[in-house]
Amino acid sequence: MARSMWKGAISFGLVHIPVEMYPAASDQGLDLTMLDRRDFAPIGFKRYNKATGKEVSWDDIVKGYEYSDGEYVVLTDEDLRRANPEATQTIDILAFVNAEQVPLIYYEQPYYLAPGKGGDKVYALLRETLREVGKIGIANVVIRVKQHLAALVCVGDTIVLNTLRYPDEIRPTDELKIPAADSKAAQVTDKELQMARALVEGMSEKWKPQQYHDTYREDVLALIKKKVAANQTKTLTEPEPEEEKPAKSNVIDLVSLLQASLGKKPAKAAAADDDDDDEPPPRKSRKPSKDDEDTDDTPPPRARKAPAHAATHASAKRTTAAKSTAAKTATKTAAKKTATKAAAKPAAKAAPARRRKAA
After folding, report:
1. How far is CA 102 from the centre of its chain?
2. CA atoms within 13 A on the CB side of 157
3. Taking the complete model, does pTM exceed 0.85, yes or no?
4. Is 94 among the domain residues?
5. Residues 6+ apart with CB under 8 A from 23
6. Is a pLDDT exceeding 80 seen at residue 281?
């Protein structure tokens, strides 16, 4: 366990609880060292005297407040303690409030509070009281050279001091373009709200902090391990050329996105949206079966007029048939005339012969 960073006492009313403060969070970021790209030598930073340019050790460094240009008041740790001994050694509880009344944006940095020597009983008394009433203690505490507003919260069997931001440290949202609740551009329909609520309920589960971890850090460490194995310890990876991304449409179909998130196809989402908002379309007619023909008492549909092209086609057929009949009649008449002429010629030849014989 890390050594305590602060020793003092919790004070409320006439109750005095000796405690020690320990950091409750640790930075698990990537510890990267800056190197000179020419020879990959580490880059160092020096604390130097700006007047002489010489390096200064930690033992020779003191704090000072610049009260005018180039003029300082030197302040030692003892000066800072003597300025207000009670404030620098006491967590002074000012009030007890409901935890839900303090927005999360006010919470800043957590610290563990452990009982000091002889403080077990009063420590347990405050812990059980906070747990019983369901409230948190709002207190003042000085850490290093800054006074903090803080909240004392019971977390399991430990009292946690969480420093809070002052109201003037929180930036206003006036300059942000936040959509108003009655804005037409950001109007949310009951259907979208209902589907979003269903999605939230479907993803709801118990808080299990152990299942969350820094996957990006793990991926970078895996890349480092891969480079070491491939002997690429001093290989500079150049950035890839950026690809032009297609322009995205500003129109967002929230229903389709919500349906897809719920595990449904967007097409079904659109159909469901139409069913709820519009009248259902008429059903397509189907071919009647034999059973339907026997039992259906509905009157037959009216005969529809033939289209114009069908009438033209029928007229052409009738004209062709008439022409064919006329042609046949003409052929028969011509044949009869030919037969009559052929019969008349022998008769004409026989008549003069009889007249000559008579003479």
Report:
1. 28
2. 4
3. no
4. yes
5. 2, 5, 111, 112
6. no
